[in-house]
């Protein structure tokens, strides 16, 4: 069975007419579908009617034919990555918060350096989900955010960052220069979803301090977290890089300090195309120049 035969079958199922299909695909033999039927030993098309209709077997075969054609197109697009100097796409995944707060300037500079390369940036619910999509090949690279002591051989460290306590203006704890976790036992927390590093790290640190945090709301929307803290609904703990220029609430360092690491991750069995190599090299240079380092430090409230 040939790819051209599958293309013909899919087209005739859409146009429902042999003549129009022949014109579209520039073929003149309706015997194409008969060849498929002969190979399968099944009747796929009901030819007894004026318009082409598929049999039950034909409708089932159409699902497979379309999937094969889609996979072939995906493979074709993916192989373009290995053509030196050609346009292509780098598929890049990030957990919540990162695309808007940490990478806009990086995207801008990468685009200027590689104008023919498309960055397909996708946001996922957490770092584990990003890593999963990298491993199955949906993504070329992904950003992971997690424990400072956790690292992988197939990654590039981007930055370490502190996580700060976020309090409403006028909160009693805002009078302190730093706040101990033990002081948060009566507070209501607004956090990201339970699978995120932010949620798990804060929950674990509270347990170590001798209490279970009162989590009143979880959301993936950082804007919502900030607004709820600002209006006094609760408190949160966020990485400093998302707090740059934020003055609607108060930030205080925690004790013991809570930190996280951000890294670029790729599959351990990845075959690097020229586009992948360009992207990784550019990222290394960007990191080495210190452009990601703690963007919120300069205006931290103390």
From TrEMBL:
Keywords, in A-Z order: DNA-binding, Transcription, Transcription regulation
According to the record, the segments passing through the membrane are none
Any one of the GO CC terms = cytosol
Coiled coil regions, renumbered to chain: none
Q: What is this protein called?
A: HTH-type transcriptional regulator gltC
Q: Does the keyword Transcription regulation apply?
A: yes
Q: Which GO terms describe its molecular function?
A: DNA binding; DNA-binding transcription factor activity
Give yes or no: UniProt keyword Ribosomal protein: no
Q: Tell me which family the UniProt entry assigns to this protein.
A: Belongs to the LysR transcriptional regulatory family.
Per its UniProt entry, which superkingdom is the organism in? Bacteria
Q: Where is the HTH lysR-type domain?
A: 1-55
Q: Which Gene3D superfamilies match?
A: 3.40.190.290, Winged helix-like DNA-binding domain superfamily/Winged helix DNA-binding domain
């Amino acid at each position: 069975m040939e790819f051209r035969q599958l293309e013909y079958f899919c087209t005739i199922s859409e146009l429902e007419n042999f003549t129009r299909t022949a014109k579209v695909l520039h073929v003149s033999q309706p015997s194409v579908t008969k060849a498929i039927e002969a190979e399968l030993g099944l009747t796929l098309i009901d030819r007894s009617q004026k318009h082409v209709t598929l049999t039950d077997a034909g409708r089932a075969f159409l699902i497979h034919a379309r999937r094969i054609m889609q996979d072939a197109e995906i493979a074709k697009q993916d192989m373009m990555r290995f053509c030196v100097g050609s346009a292509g796409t780098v598929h890049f995944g990030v957990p919540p918060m990162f695309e808007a707060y940490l990478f806009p300037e990086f995207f801008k500079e990468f685009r200027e350096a590689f104008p023919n390369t498309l960055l397909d940036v996708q946001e996922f619910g957490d770092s584990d989900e990003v890593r999963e999509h990298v491993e199955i090949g949906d993504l070329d690279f992904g950003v992971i955010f997690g424990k400072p002591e956790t690292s992988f051989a197939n990654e590039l460290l981007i930055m370490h960052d502190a996580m700060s306590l976020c309090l409403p203006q006028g909160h009693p704890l805002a009078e302190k220069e730093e706040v101990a976790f033990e002081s948060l036992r009566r507070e209501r927390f607004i956090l990201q979803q339970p699978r995120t590093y932010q949620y798990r790290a804060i929950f674990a640190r509270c347990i170590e301090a001798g209490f279970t945090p009162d989590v009143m709301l979880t959301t993936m929307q950082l804007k919502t977290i900030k607004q709820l803290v600002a209006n006094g609904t609760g408190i949160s703990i966020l990485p400093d890089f998302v707090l740059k220029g934020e003055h609607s609430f108060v930030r205080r360092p925690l004790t013991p300090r809570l930190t996280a690491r951000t890294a670029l991750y790729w599959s351990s069995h990845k075959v690097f195309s020229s586009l992948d190599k360009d992207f990784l090299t550019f990222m290394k240079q960007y990191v080495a120049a210190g452009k990601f380092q703690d963007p919120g430090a300069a205006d931290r409230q103390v």
